[in-house]
Amino acid sequence: MSDLDEIRRKRMAELERQHAVSSEQMQQQAQQQVQQQQMQQEMESQKKQILVQILTPEARNRLANLKLTKPELVQQIELQLIQSAQTGSLRGKVTEEQLKVLLKQISGQKRDINIRRK
Length: 118
Known about the structure:
- By secondary structure, this protein is an all-alpha fold.
- Helix content is 82%, strand content 0%.
- It contains four helices and no strands.
């Protein structure tokens, strides 16, 4: 019986070690996720601050409304505006009319697909 008890004891010790290692890994993953979320929040807040500086309130409202229906397009426009501001090609705040022109330019780049049935 002592051999059997010894085997059980060793197996229990091995399982406890495996459990400890897996719980450490889970804690590390959780910490990494928290750090990623914090970085995303920081980047988002920085992006919002820049947009507040370069857009008029009407233009921000238009982007906010458009974001509900076409978030990818809005993200592309925001990045383009931020890059333009960082390079210094923007003079003054972007108005709603200027934003409309930009939207038409970006929307015009996409091909229209027409399907005709005969």
